[in-house]
């Protein structure tokens, strides 16, 4: 097969955009707005439809980069299914994170592409210190993704992330504090030891001064000490002994 040319990629991008435009709808765009997804360029295509297209296209890092450059919401969402995790670079992750303009793009990329790269852990701390709302959220969305998908990660990695969560909880911006809460809850569900550490932090946050930290702490403490999580941890321990 001859190597792909720039024109081949450009043609494929045009085909993808045409395909998306034909399947977009005003109803879906209005649904996005109701969920707080603000995107300057959107066709209104469901995530399920994007997943189907992503499977057809397959992993193609060059195409993913070209789709991202279009600025279209659906094209950027599609990159999570088309990008090749092993070829993603730190510079690319930083560049794309700076382009995040809504929570859906942020979470989708972190949860379906970035957390599968070998560079994911190294981006959590730097992003948690960034001033941009969605870059900072990305730190905690990425941490949540790692908590759910990186089954081999040692507890120590998550314990080292707890101070980042504690600092992030003081940020009262809606999308940041929700990302912080998500990460803390995921860590606290991984195993008994991390649950104890997360519950301790949640209790401290619940008693702290900043309203956002109290909100994060109270919600996480309620969930992580609740019957559902306790039963899940007990099943996990029983399976480990079996």
Helix-strand blueprint:
Blueprint: H1 6-23, H2 26-34, H3 47-57, H4 61-69, H5 73-82, H6 90-99, H7 103-112, H8 120-128, H9 133-149, H10 155-168, H11 174-188, H12 192-206, H13 211-224, H14 227-241
Helix pairs in contact: 1-4, 3-5, 4-5, 5-7, 7-9, 8-9, 9-10, 9-11, 10-11, 10-12, 11-12, 11-13, 12-13
Q: How would you briefly describe this protein structure?
A:
By secondary structure, this protein is mainly α. Helix content is 73%, strand content 0%. The longest helix is centred in the N-terminal third of the chain and has 18 residues, at 6-23.
Radius of gyration: 19 Å
Determine the structural class based on helices, strands and strand pairing. mainly alpha
Total tally of structural domains: 2
> In percent, how much strand structure appears in the residues?
under 5%
Helical segment count: 14
Helix content: over 70%
User: What's the helix-strand series?
Assistant: HHHHHHHHHHHHHH
- From the spread of the alpha carbons, the general shape counts as globular
Largest sheet: none
The overall strand count is: 0
State the end-to-end CA separation: 51 Å
Mean pLDDT metric? 95
Q: Give the low-pLDDT segments.
A: none
């Amino acid at each position: 097969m001859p190597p792909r040319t720039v024109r081949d990629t450009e043609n494929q991008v045009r085909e993808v955009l045409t395909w998306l435009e034909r399947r977009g709808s005003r109803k879906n765009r209005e649904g996005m707005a109701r969920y707080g997804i603000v995107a300057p360029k959107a066709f209104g295509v469901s995530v399920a439809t994007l997943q189907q297209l992503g499977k057809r296209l397959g992993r193609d890092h060059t195409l993913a980069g070209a789709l991202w450059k279009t600025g279209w919401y659906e094209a950027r969402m599609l990159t999570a299914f088309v990008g090749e995790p092993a070829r993603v670079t730190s510079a690319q992750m930083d560049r794309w994170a700076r382009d995040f303009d809504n929570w859906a793009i942020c979470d989708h990329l972190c949860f379906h592409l970035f957390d599968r790269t070998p560079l994911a852990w190294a981006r959590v701390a730097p992003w948690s210190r960034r001033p941009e709302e969605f870059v900072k959220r990305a730190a905690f969305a990425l941490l949540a993704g790692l908590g759910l998908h990186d089954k081999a990660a040692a507890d120590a990695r998550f314990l080292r992330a707890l101070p980042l969560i504690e600092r992030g909880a003081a940020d009262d911006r809606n999308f940041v504090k929700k990302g912080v809460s998500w990460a803390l809850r995921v860590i606290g569900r991984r195993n008994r030891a991390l649950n104890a550490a997360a519950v301790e932090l949640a209790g401290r946050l619940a008693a702290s001064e900043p309203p956002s930290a109290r909100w994060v702490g109270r919600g996480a403490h309620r969930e992580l000490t609740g019957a559902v999580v306790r039963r899940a941890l007990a099943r996990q321990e029983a399976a480990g002994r079996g």
